Amino acid sequence: MADNVQKPANHGYELAKGLFEINGDDLVLGGLPVRTIVAEVGSPAYLYDGQLMRRAYRRLADALKGFASIYYSAKANPAEAVIRLFLEEGAGIEIASLGEYRAAIAAGAAPEHILFAGPGKRRAELEAVIEGGIGEIHIEGVDEIGRLRSIGKPVQASIRINPVPTVQAGAMRMGGKATAFGFDEEDLDAAIAAVASADNIELVGIHVYGGTQILDAEALLGQWRHAITLAARVARTTGKPLKTIDLGGGLGIPYYAGDKPLDLDAVAAAVPELAALLKSEPLIAGARAIVEPGRFLVGEAGLYVSEINTVKQSRGVRFLVMEGGMNHHLAASGNLGQVIKRNYPVVAPARMTAPSDAPATLVGPLCTPLDTLARDAGLPDLKAGDLVAVLQSGAYGLTASPINFLSHPHPAEALVENGRIEAIGR
What we know:
By secondary structure, this protein is of the alpha/beta class. Helices cover 29% and strands 25% of the residues. The relative contact order is 0.18.
């Protein structure tokens, strides 16, 4: 990484410098300048750095060593090339639809290493994954028990538990309140009895997921401790040992100025205590703890890159109109859950040495004011034909966006590693 690069007061630049190589004017991803990759795959494009994904996986695996296995949550980025990368690293796969199941199988996942969660599994989906083979189905409601019973084939299952409010955490709360996800903790005994009434369902574990985008290590660890306590309760109620304890995902990444990354050292320091907590209850002492991150593994490795179509001024505001906008990247527009809209980090990937002294509002080509990816962003003085890159875009990007809205072309996708570009088709 070049040491003589000018350092503009730009959050995106500082974040990019910590993640990627910068060589002169160029942001380098996977061993190639971003503009070189775009010249091959086209603009707009989602670009993923394979080595950064591997690095994130290995850091987390080291932190959890001796305590938990990692299952990649495919909902974050279900591209087969991405799933295959994590299979190569040794991950299992967590899915939330038949489509993700098929992507995991196509990528080479062994069926027994796939978990199926989600609050609205259709009978046809359940039949298909049971026929094809599945490690576990995570049951989220009474109706789902009835569907599994009526299918009649043997299946291993976990109960998904919506925990009490005191353990909720994260930017988006997945539990601890009224929710469609799982059985409320206060109804746990009834849920256990309902599963036990189906002869073909073997209850092998629990799944607890309190929230997502968690940057506070202690909040995350508190959820995991609570999940282990619930697992012991379930095992004592059934009188049978559990095989798995799914602690959920929710590990976050820093998006905005002032965000601090999740402290993996603090997580690693708590592993002996968590492992001892497991061993303290005989009926769960042999259980396998599972963590199912998605965003943490892929989010930082991805860029959304678009060429600027036109530059214009309107009443004192400078607009950069890009080839793609919220139709390609809904999360960056703030329309995927943000209450207070804040800018994702952005850079000009072929102008990295230029000062960020030309604030601009980035918009897409759609006929709606919602199509705004950043407001008053610090960028160089850019013109039509220049590139803009939105960082932290590896998770909940393309497949979380309304790509058919107004019928604009879909973006390209590519996984880049060691100078090799692998185009991704869906």
